[in-house]
Amino acid sequence: MGKITVIGIGPGNLDQMTPKARAAIDAADVVAGFTTYIKFIKSIIGDKEVIGTGMMQEVDRCRLAVKAAADGRNVVMVSSGDAGIYGMAGLVYEIAFEYEVSERPEVEIIAGISAVNGAAAVLGAPLMHDFAVISLSDRLTPWGLIKKRAMLAAQGDFVIALYNPKSKSRVKNIEEIHDILMQYKSPETPVGIVRSASREDERKVITNLRDFTKEEIDMFSIVIIGNSKTFVKDGVMVTPRGYKI
Amino acid sequence: MGKITVIGIGPGNLDQMTPKARAAIDAADVVAGFTTYIKFIKSIIGDKEVIGTGMMQEVDRCRLAVKAAADGRNVVMVSSGDAGIYGMAGLVYEIAFEYEVSERPEVEIIAGISAVNGAAAVLGAPLMHDFAVISLSDRLTPWGLIKKRAMLAAQGDFVIALYNPKSKSRVKNIEEIHDILMQYKSPETPVGIVRSASREDERKVITNLRDFTKEEIDMFSIVIIGNSKTFVKDGVMVTPRGYKI
């Protein structure tokens, strides 16, 4: 019986991937994952077998990877950021559970620096306090539920981090969420947008709730909307924890 | 002018700290932080100067660290997990902002594996979807606001991660939150509790919403409460992303 180790490679540059994740790659015979993410680690893969994207969807790729592990290979499945946050960790378990226990490969999850942590570090300290993470992709989640979550998070004055805020084919979701947030949060609430955190093409913008949808946002962007205490000073976005200073 | 770099060391074992954070420690003259966390990295500090806890509170320790940087030293401020999530990142900025720009040390934040990511990896894949992170410590946050956030997160069927769920002097908060969550989530909702994720004394329990407060929980525990789709199988807690498999 082989093993499948699901790792998060962090924001993309090797110095933000943990030694534990790195060791899992080094030990693997087979590397599986979305081709874009595999490129980030190309320099350390060597001539290992790759199960990349091609025309395959996530489920088929994942099934191939789990099968390779069941067949005795040592497989590493790569997610960007953290595999446990909108990544491949859940799907690998779901597919592994299709095997009887006696036939099932071992599954291990190794945490990574998630996109929201990476983006926050680039902006300053925008999270710091209670926060909610919401994906605006309605491919796998009913749009009504996503809107409801945005509304409730805004009512609770959570810092809100948006994953998958926009794609070429999905441009209106963020406008609807903007309308909802404007009902509950001040239009002056600081908003940070980060794309490709800590990679060469990193871009960051700090603006406010009223205006943020005018900025360039795509599926690789993370949007962080402050709470009522969040402030911006000298280009840095900070949510105070509440210490008296 | 010196520099203060605020790093997250991850869950505590060195193989889950990023090379970037490690490099910041190596480059520093002075290491500041809560003594418990500094112990985790003792083997790599060497004979650098340490600004530890002693009897100092966070604010005083942070002030000393920022002053050392303003005086020209290269300081690294250590948080466990990620410094941007209930860590020292915000406070360092707030104190640095007390200095005029011309006197202010450079501040850099380096992301770490946050406690919630570390705990999730130990439990399986409990986050995976939209989630809310709430600290139950009411030292710096009004208790009414914390309860309101827990209620709204439960209404939104978020996966909910609780930081600081309980301490020796604060044992009732988690009971009140339990009562609130029971109003909106099924008593069978899976709940995972992890203490000292990926350290030698790691402990994990997977139980359900009805019963989880009977388990041993302390200030170093992370509690993750699933959404309505979360399931447990063969000792693993998984929240499906929604793929049709």
Question: Which keywords apply here?
Answer:
alpha/beta; five-stranded parallel β-sheet; five-stranded mixed β-sheet; homodimer; 245 residues
Give a description of the structure:
The structure is a homodimer of 245-residue chains. Chain A has 245 residues and is an alpha/beta fold. In chain A, 30% of the residues lie in helices and 24% in strands. Chain A has 8 helices and 13 strands. In chain A, strands 3-2-4-1-5 form a 5-stranded parallel sheet, with helices on both faces. In chain A, α4 packs across α5. At the A-B interface, α1, α5, β5, α6 and β6 of A face α1, α5, β5, α6 and β6 of B.
Helix content of chain A: 25-40%
Identify the overall geometry of chain A: elongated
Sheet with most strands of chain A: 5 strands, parallel
Q: Which band does the percent of strand residues of chain A land in?
A: 15-25%
Number of helices of chain A: 8
Number of β-strand runs of chain A:
13
The pLDDT mean of chain A sits at 95
